[in-house]
Specification:
There is one protein chain. The protein is mainly β and about 300 residues long. It has helices spanning about 110-120, 155, and strands spanning about 15-20, 35-40, 40-45, 55, 65-70, 80-85, 95-100, 105-110, 130-135, 140, 165-170, 180-190, 200-205, 210, 215, 220-225, 230-240, 245, 245-250, 255, 265, 270-280, 285-295. It folds into 2 domains: about 40-170, Immunoglobulin-like (Sandwich); about 180-295, no CATH class. The protein is about 5% helix and about 45% strand. The strands form 5 sheets. The protein has an 8-stranded antiparallel β-barrel with strand order 12-13-14-16-17-20-22-23. Strands 4, 6, 7, 9, 10 and 11 form a 6-stranded mixed sheet that branches. A 3-stranded antiparallel sheet has the order 3-5-8. The two termini are about 25 Å apart. About 30% of the residues are buried.
Length: about 300
C-alpha cells in the first residue's frame, strides 16, 4: 500500500515554476541562482457546440471545436502560445496546429482533413488527437506534451473546471453491454487496487455503470456517467464509504471525476480510464488515474 499525502490548501493560483540545482543548510528563502517564472494556467476544452468525437462512418462530418483561455480571470497573458496537437497519446508525435497566438481566449474548429494533413495519415479507429498550448514566458517555453515529465501537475488538473487538453477520438460507438461483468485492474495511481485484481462492473442503465472500492468500510456503489457522444466519463462527487481500511482516521472518503479528456471509455479495447479525485473529511489526496480492462 503506498503512502498518501493529504493537501488541505486550496489552489488559488497556478504558477511558480521553480528550478534549482541543490540546497544547503544556510540557504535563504530564495537563493540567487533560483529561476522563477510566472506561468499562467491555461485551460483547453472541447466546445459542446461542435463534434464531440470523430465518427469513422462519417469522417467528412467531423467539425471539432475547442476553446483556449486563461483559467484565472485577470491573469497576465503569456508572451505567446503555440496550439499543438498530440496523436495517440505519444509525446513524440506532436504537431503545431496554430503558431504564435498572442490573444486569449481563442476558439478553433478542426476537421478530419486538418488532422490528416498535419500527421500525413488517415484517421483510423482508436486514434486520439489532443490539443493544448505550448506556453512562452520570456525566453522560456513550457511544453504541453514534453518528452520527459508532465506538462501539467496533479494540482492544476484537479482544479474545478480546469481542462488540460481538448481530445477528439475516432471512436467505436459506446456499447453498454460491454461494460458489465468482471474487469481487470491495469493500473491504479492511488494504490487501492493492485494490477491484475478483479473489479466487477454493474450496469445501471444505458449511460450509467457502477463499481465498489472494497478498501473502505461500509462501501457504497460508485456511479459513473458515460457520455455516448464522446465516450467521456464522469463521477458526481459522492461518498464511497465511511473510512479507508488502511487508515481509519481518514473519514467519509469521496470520489469525483470531471467529464474531461482524461477520463473515457474505449469500447474497442474494452477499457475504462478514470482520473479520479479522492477526498476525505481531513482534506484532498488529489487526482489519480485508475485503468480497468475487460478480459
Amino acid at each position: 500500500m503506498k503512502i498518501r499525502k493529504i493537501s488541505i490548501l486550496s489552489a488559488l493560483s497556478l504558477g511558480l515554476v521553480i528550478a534549482f540545482a541543490g540546497c544547503k543548510k544556510d540557504d535563504g528563502a530564495v537563493r540567487s541562482n533560483v529561476t522563477i517564472n510566472d506561468v499562467p494556467a491555461i485551460s483547453t476544452a472541447v466546445d459542446a457546440s461542435g463534434s464531440q468525437a470523430i465518427d469513422l462512418l462519417n469522417l467528412s462530418a467531423f467539425s471539432g471545436k475547442f476553446n483556449v483561455g486563461l483559467y484565472f480571470p485577470g491573469a497576465v497573458n503569456p508572451d505567446k502560445v503555440d496550439i499543438v496537437v498530440r496523436k495517440n497519446g505519444s509525446n513524440t508525435n506532436v504537431k503545431v496546429y496554430k503558431a504564435a497566438v498572442t490573444t486569449l481566449p481563442a476558439s478553433y474548429t478542426v476537421t478530419t482533413t486538418d488532422l490528416q494533413t498535419l500527421f500525413g495519415a488517415a484517421v483510423t479507429l482508436g486514434d486520439t488527437y489532443d490539443f493544448a498550448p505550448d506556453i512562452y514566458v520570456g525566453t522560456k517555453k513550457f511544453e504541453a506534451f514534453p518528452a520527459v515529465g508532465a506538462g501539467s501537475g496533479a494540482g492544476p488538473i484537479a482544479m474545478p473546471g480546469y481542462s488540460e487538453f481538448a481530445r477528439f477520438a475516432a471512436i467505436c460507438a459506446y456499447d453498454p453491454t460491454i461494460y458489465v461483468g468482471n474487469f481487470t485492474v491495469v493500473s491504479d495511481g492511488f494504490g487501492d487496487f493492485s494490477p491484475g485484481e478483479i473489479v466487477p462492473i454493474t450496469k445501471i442503465d444505458a449511460t450509467h455503470i457502477s463499481f465498489i472500492d472494497p478498501y473502505v468500510t461500509s462501501p457504497l456503489p460508485i456511479v459513473i456517467a458515460v457520455n455516448p457522444l464522446n465516450n467521456q466519463l464522469s463521477i458526481t462527487k459522492q461518498k464511497i464509504g465511511n473510512a479507508f481500511v488502511w487508515a481509519l482516521n481518514y473519514t467519509n472518503p469521496n470520489m469525483a471525476m470531471a467529464a474531461t479528456a482524461s477520463s473515457f471509455a474505449s469500447p474497442c479495447s474494452k477499457t475504462l480510464t478514470m482520473s479520479i479525485t479522492y477526498t476525505v473529511d481531513q482534506g484532498s489526496f488529489g487526482a489519480y488515474t485508475l485503468i480497468l480492462k475487460k478480459p
